[in-house]
Amino acid sequence: MALPDQPQPELPKRPLKLCVLKFGSSVLFTPDDYARAAHEIYRHVRAGEKVVAVVSALDGETDALFGVGNDVGQGCSDALLARLVRCGELKSAALMGLALERSGIPSAVLDPHEMGLRAEGEALDANLTGLDAGRVLARFGAVDVIVAPGFFGDGADGPVTLGRGGTDLTAVEFAHWLGADRVRLIKDVDGVYTDDPAKVANAKRLDQLDYDEAAKVSRGLVQDKAITRAKEQSVVIEVAALGRPYATRIAAVEKRAGGGVAAKPLKVAVLGHGAVGAGVCAHLLAHPGRFSLNPVLVRDPDQHRVGAPVALQFTADPAEALAGDPDIVVETIGGTGLARSLSQSVLREGAHLVTANKAVMALDFDRLHQLAQENGRSLRYSATIGGGVPILEIVDLLAAEDTLLSVEGVLNGTCNFVLGQLGLGVPLAEAVAEAQRLGFAEADPSADIDGYDAADKLAILVRHAFGVALHPDQISRESLSDLSADRIAAVNEQGLVFKQVARCATTHDGRVEAKVEIQALAPDHPLAGLVNEGNGALLNLPGGQLGVFGKGAGRWPTAEAVFADIMDIQRDTVLPAKAASHMPENPLSHIRRMSTRTVA
Length: 600
Prior knowledge:
The protein has a nine-stranded mixed sheet, with helices on both faces. Strands 23-25-24-21-26-27 form a six-stranded mixed sheet. Strands 15-14-18-19-20 form a five-stranded parallel sheet, sandwiched between helices. Strand 7 (152-155) and strand 8 (158-161) form a beta hairpin. The chain folds into three domains: 18-257, Carbamate kinase; 266-380, Rossmann fold, CATH 3.40.50; 391-554, Dihydrodipicolinate Reductase, domain 2 (2-Layer Sandwich), CATH 3.30.360. The two termini are 35 Å apart. It has 21 helices and 28 strands. By secondary structure, it is of the alpha/beta class.
């Protein structure tokens, strides 16, 4: 989770958590499916894992390439066909990279020749023989996700393919060579069944089975060569569907059947339809089997109906938006007026609450947590800091296993953009206007410019990092408006970079100090490379420093984090007991019990 193209800080010595995810053609039907795949990847990233995403071509594309190749070549060599049909995977990997970039997830797309991925054998049925693991792992210093095309590798005389289902084999070999915890094959079914569930009504899903049994009953669901190699290398395979908290585990284990897992769609009420709310609604509408959507609360329903999906309804009446006892309420209104009162009332009425409202969370942290606990409901707010950058999740992971000394970060995308413009000589008013035009700033940007937004985020961060109750008013702030023309000119002349830095740290006597200030940083400082809506944090530990970076503002990165919270709640309702899940525990699923103390 480090920043690309910058000198990297020394990292703490801890094992790299790595998983390999494989997305086959059965879940990549159209380009729209890459957004769903990106969310599956983000789910693992925010749980503290690095991810290798191995992708197949879009559904039907490989067959189409074989068809056109045979039509044009009429008996051409297998070597030329292999060179052609691999293009489906190359295209798919690039599309996955684009989807991840839109969601603000730091990633790199690597082709086989960039990874030293070698293969031997027949041009259309080869086997992988090697990978430059050091080169691949080194890229994780700058990104959270590496996207790789499956199905082919580099042979001695050019590209060769791995046979039908060859992306399964690619994923298994990556897991072995990179030392991943497991390989998770994402399919259009939620596991391996005793019989084909599409044909046999009473087919039973298996929780786990050994490699030999998997080869017998998977009926091509997992490539035979992939199962054989997994057995030889003791690679654990999981077979799962998108978004599911459970999987069939293929390993050196005894066969065990699993119970049927079914759940009715959860009723969701979305409050607000701005940039983030609209993004969340788009995610919800893409999963009709999991969620039903109440009319969305807005001020002017007629205005929001223009250009909106037909399935989306709007209302100006909070009672209508919250009708029918919704299971989950998503608050994206912002501010501390209506949003504050509704946040408390929905928890009191027994709904789960997901919010991106950092001001409300900073002011009512204890009260909202108390209401959630009293009513047995979840309170999720990962998007309040960093948008799609999982700063809170990583802070929780580190604080649970180590002693955090300090956290410093760029937490406001609006200020980051405006300060960048000031560095180019643009006057403050013009820089703010441009930020508003690009969607980086609200109509009233004073909360951002004057540091209130960063102070709210810092108050929440202090809770998670140090367990201290700190009111935002106790955090000193410096406003961009305080920057004089002389100071700006001097910093620009020295080649330094202005950043709004939020910092919290423990003192020698056990107190916590927190402040938001405008700092002039050297160009090689890890925070200096953040541009536009970029957010990032440096987490300082006794053993070193860890950086977490990405897009912290905008519709899709923030909506990604909000929807991840929604999906966590949905998974908990499907499978409350996580015994059958092999996903690492999400740190925000159960906020660690903090010994909270108040700063006077």
